[in-house]
Amino acid sequence: APAALAGSLTASGHLTGRWPNLSSDGELHGTALRMQAVAVRQANGRWRLGSSDNAALDGTLVLDGVDAGGRALDRIEAQVSGTARVHRAELRVVSALLPPEWTDALAARPPGSGASASAAAASTATASAPGATAPRATASAPSTVPAARSSARSVVTVVAEGGLVDVGGQRAGGWRGMVREAVARSVGTPTRIWLEARDVRGSVVWAGAPIRVAVDPGHAEVLGATLRWSRIAWQQGEGNAAARLEAQADVDAIAVAPILQALQPGFGWGGDLRVGARLKVESAASVGVDMVIERASGDLTVTDEISTQRLGLSDLRLGVAAAGGVWHFTAAAAGATLGVLSAAVTARTAPSATWPAADTPLEGVSELRVDNLGTWGSWLTPGWRLGGRLHANASFGGRFGAPQYTGHVEGAAISVRNFLEGVNVTDGTVQIALRGSTAHIETFTAKGGAGTLRLEGDAAFDEAATAQLRLALDRFELLSRVDRRIVASGTSSLRLETRTLALDGTFKVDEGLVDFTRSDAPTLGSDVEVVRRPKAPPPPAAVAQAQAPVPVTATPQRAIRLDLRVDMGEKLQVRGRGLDAGLRGVLHLTSPNGRLAVNGTLQAAEGTYQAYGQKLGIDRGVLAFTGPVENPRLDIEATRPNLDVRVGVTVTGTALNPRIRLFSAPELSDIDKLSWLVLGRASATTGGADTALLQQAALALLSGEGPGVTDRLIRSIGLDEVSVRQSQGAVKDTIVSLGKQISKRWYVGYERGLNTTLGTWQLIYRVAQRVTVRAEAGSDNAVDVIWTWRWK
Length: 792
Known about the structure:
Helix content is 9%, strand content 58%. By secondary structure, the chain is mainly beta. It starts with a strand and ends in a 5-residue tail after the last strand.
C-alpha cells in the first residue's frame, strides 16, 4: 500500500439470491487504520441488506479513537434499520472538541428550563456510553472555567426517518423524510445545548442531474437563539456552472444583557435590549445577500463604582448586502449616552464571488461620535474605567485585505481610572491624523494629579507595522494609592518594528511613597497540591499523533532593547518590613539577551529600622544592583540614637541571603550589645530588668514583618517611645517614660513614677557623640552637661 495508507482491515460477507433480487450480509474489523490525515484506532461494522425495496436493511458502524487532521473524536456510531422504503438512521459522535469559550454565554439556559432539563437527562443517559466521561461528585476545590471545560465532552446526535421515493417515473429516484432529532450538546461541566432541531422535513433528489436538496420550513435552537427558515434549497451545478443556493431565515429577538453579563461579569451590564436578525441568500449566476442584525427593542445600562447610566439606544444595526458583484457593508449605532457610529463600505468583485477577495478595491466613509467613553470600555478588564468624549471621521480606500484610512480623530476630557490600583488620569486631549496606512499624533496630553503627560509620534500599518513615539512627563502622578504614590518627570522614546521593540529615556521621581507595611495576602505553600476533578484520558489515536514527530515552525520573538535611567530624586519614601526611610540614587535598566538587568546604587536617607522592638536610626543603607533585579547587595548599618555607646545592627550579603549581626563601638559582649540596644544601658545595671528584656524580645518576635501592637499604639498617639522601668535603690519604684524625637539632635521626654505626685519633663540636645545637654523641670529642676569617657 502507499505510504498514505496504514493499518489492518478484515471483512467477510455473503451474497445470495438471483439477479436482480440479491441480498448480502457481513462484517468488518479494522485496527490502527490511517488514510492521509485521518486515523482510526479501531473500527467495527456489520450489515444486512437487499436490492428490493422491501428487503431488510440493517447496518452498524462504530469507529473508536478517530483523529481527523488533529481533531480528535472519541467515538462515532452510525446505525440504520428498516427497509429501503421505510427506514430509521441514527448518528452519534462523542468528542472532546467544544465550541469557543465565549459561546458558553450564548448557549447558557436558565435553571429549570426545558432545555437545561433535557440536557441534564441526556448527560445522565450518555455518561455510560463508551468514550463519554461521566460527571461525578467530588470534594474538590472549585474549578475555573477552563479546567471545567477540559473535563466536558460534546455529544452530537442525529436521528432521521424516511425512505426512498420514485421521482418522475424513475424508481428510487430520491429520498424523502424527517430529521426527528438533531442535538449538539456538552456532557459534564458545563452542560450546554449548542444546537437543537426536531421534526425537520426535507428531500434529496438525484433522479437525473443535477442533485437537488430542499428543506421544508422549520426552526432550530442555535446557541440559545431561535432560528426560523421559510426556504432552504440547494442544487448541484452542471458543467462549469456553480451550485445554486437559496435560503431565507430569521432569528427571533434575544436578550443581550444576560450574554454580556456572562462574558464580562465584572463590568456591570444590564438592561432589556433585544436584538434580532434576518438573512436572505441567493446564489445562481450571481451571488445575492441581504443580511441585517438590528435592535428590536429595549436599551442597555452600565453600572460602575459611581452610578448606573443608560446608553439611550435609539438605533443599532449591522447590514451586509450583495448584488451583481457589488458588496455593501453598513453599520449604525446611536444613543443618548453612547453617541453615534455610522459606516458604509463598498467592495466591487466578480458577480459569482461568494466573498470579496483580499485584493478587492474598497471605498467608503465612517464617523464616530462618543459622548461618554465609559460605555465603550467593554474591552477593559474589571476595575478599569474610561471617560471622556471622542470624535472620529475617516474615508476608506485600499484593498479589502489591507484597508487604508484618511481622516481625523479628536478626543477631549478623556480619563482612565482604576481606584484599586491608584490610577487616575484625567483631562486627556487627543488629535490624530489618519493618512492612508499611517497615523500622526498631533496632540496627546493628559493630567495626573498636578502634572502632565505628553505623547507624540507616528505609526504605519503596512504589512510590517512600525511606530515611533515620544513620551514626556512633567510631575505626572503615575500612582495615587494610599500606600503607593509616585510622581515622576522625564522623557522617553519608543521604536516598534517587526522584530524589535526599543525603549530608552530618563525619568526622575519627584515625589513618592511605597508602603508595604502590611503583608501580602496569604498563599498556599509550595508543598500543597489542590486536587481537582481528573481529566479524561485522551484517545490513543490522539496520543499516538501527539507522540509522533511534528515539524515545528519557529515564531520569531520580538527582541526588546531597553535603556532607561531612573533617578529616585529627593522625596521618595519607602516603608515596610521595619524600614522607614528615604531612597536616593540612580538606576540603569537594560535588557541584555532579552532579560531585565538593573545597575546602580540606592541609598537610604534619614531613615529608621525596626529591630529587637526598638526604632534604630539608619547611619548607612546601600543597595547595590549589578544585574539581577531580585538579588542586590546589601550594606546597611542602623544604630539606636541618644546613647553613650554606639550600638546597632548591620545587614550585609544579598537580598536572597542576608547576614544580620549586632555591633558596638567600643566592642562589647553580645549580652551588653543586646542590653544597650534594647534597654539603653549596660547589662550590669539591669537588675530585675531581665524580665523587661524578655518582654521586648517577645514583642519583637510577635511583630513579625510589620509593626507590633505596641508600635501601632505609639504611632497612633504621635510618640516615638513609651517604656516602663524600675528605679535603682533600696525602694523600687515603677517609672513610665514617654518621648518624642523632634529632630536628629533634639528629644523631648516625660517621666513619672507611679508612687509620686509629680513628673519630670526633659529636653535633651546632643551636641556630639559624647557631649549632651539635658534640661529637666518638674519634681527635679536642673540643667546638666554630660560628657562621657569610657575605657576598657
